[in-house]
Amino acid sequence: MAKHVLFDRLGGPEVLTLRDVEVGSPGPGEVRIRVDAIGLNRAEIMFREGVYYEQPVFPSTLGYEAAGVVEAVGEGVSHLAEGEPIAVVPAFSLTKYGTYGDHVIVPAHAVFPRPANTSAVQAAAVWMAYITAYGPLFESGEVRPGDHVLISAAASSVGQAAIQVARHIGAIPIATTRAASKSRRLLEAGAAEVVVTTEEDLVTRVKEITGGEGVRLAFDPIAGPGVDTIAQAIALDGHLVVYGGLDPRPTPLPNASSYPRLTSRTYTMHSITSDPGRLRRAVAFINAGLATGSFTPAIDRTFDLTEIAEAHRYLEASNHIGKIVVTLTH
Fold first, then answer.
1. What values do phi and psi take at 120, rounded to 5?
2. If 13 and its partner were Cys, which of 47, 99, 191, 309 is the partner (CB 3.0–4.6 Å)?
3. Are 43 and 245 in contact (CB under 8 A)?
4. Half-sphere exposure of residue 94: CA atoms within 13 angstroms, side-chain side
5. Are 103 and 4 in contact (CB under 8 A)?
6. How many domains does the chain have?
7. What crossing angle do the helices spanning 276-292 and 127-134 adopt, rounded to 10°?
8. Of 180, 173, 74, whose CA–CA distance to 133 is shortest?
């Protein structure tokens, strides 16, 4: 028997329960893994609450990321072997698979060998954050060496990854945060400048930092009316990329009469993980950064699987800097 986190109704962290389940053998194109660490993501909170783009089918599990060891492979799986250390990337539907358990079955196309120099905790903290940052900062080709990049809510795991990816390609990351107490940590993480939006005018500070030009790209998970302010900090022919919806209010499209040379779009990492070619490039890019030390996932805190509800409460509080990881002992 394995232990899985399941829930039978929408709600807060209290709906999550740890139960004994029969896992069985992997089917064609699947892999069964022993899980050593699980990376938590805000998407899983939204899924649990019923506000994600997919709705859970009860009883439902959840979880996009994990690191562990291959226990068994299904028919047609040739790129993985039993006993191999691996990482699970978010390349599947939460209605079909999940990683919140000590032994789970996941699709083989979402499983990759783990770099030798990467621990299970680090590997569980990498993929959602770095793939999300990889798309608009590298795959799209919109950011060049020397360009300024504005990273909103930069204390998140994606924000931390975006800072490192920007540095890796020679861009100049400007981080934003609402909490002045996080400024020092963001500078230590590689931000060239930090704008505390509760104390400073964003547009004025960005124009000062960039010599009046504005940023080449703004990478924003907040959305809502604030995108109008962010748009004013973007250079001519620049890009606004909204990849989340932390602000539930309507998000206006920047007015064409005010920003005639600005492109704006939404983005999710699924545009990378659902395309085999893009995913292959993303994994190669991220593994290279991990191997050279350019990428080091920031781990804020770890919890035991039995503390999953507490871990979700901690994530919801948004006081963390970097990734929250659940660890398992066997």
1. -65, -40
2. 309
3. no
4. 27
5. no
6. 2
7. 110
8. 173
Look-up of token digits 């779009």: 265
245 shares a domain with 145: yes
- Would you place residue 330 in the very low, low, confident or very high pLDDT band (cuts 50, 70, 90)? confident
Residues 261 and 137 in one domain: yes
Q: What is the CATH number of the domain that holds 32?
A: 3.90.180.10
The residues, ordered by sequence, that sit 6+ positions from 251 with a Cβ below 8 Å of its Cβ are 223, 224, 225, 227, 242, 245
pLDDT bin (cut points 50, 70, 90) of residue 161 is very high
Q: Which amino acid, residue 204?
A: T
List Cβ neighbours of 200 (8 Å cut-off, separation of 6 or more).
Answer: none
Cβ-contact 198, 218 below 8 angstroms: no
Count Cα atoms within 13 angstroms, Cβ side, for 120.
18
Rounded distance, CA 251 to CA 71, Å? 45
Residue 109 is classified by DSSP as G
Is residue 153 included in any domain, yes or no?
yes
pLDDT grade for 171, boundaries at 50, 70 and 90: very high
Q: What is the mean pLDDT of residues 48-69?
A: 96
CA distance 105 to 248: 34
Q: Crossing angle, helix 276-292 and helix 157-168, to 10 degrees?
A: 80
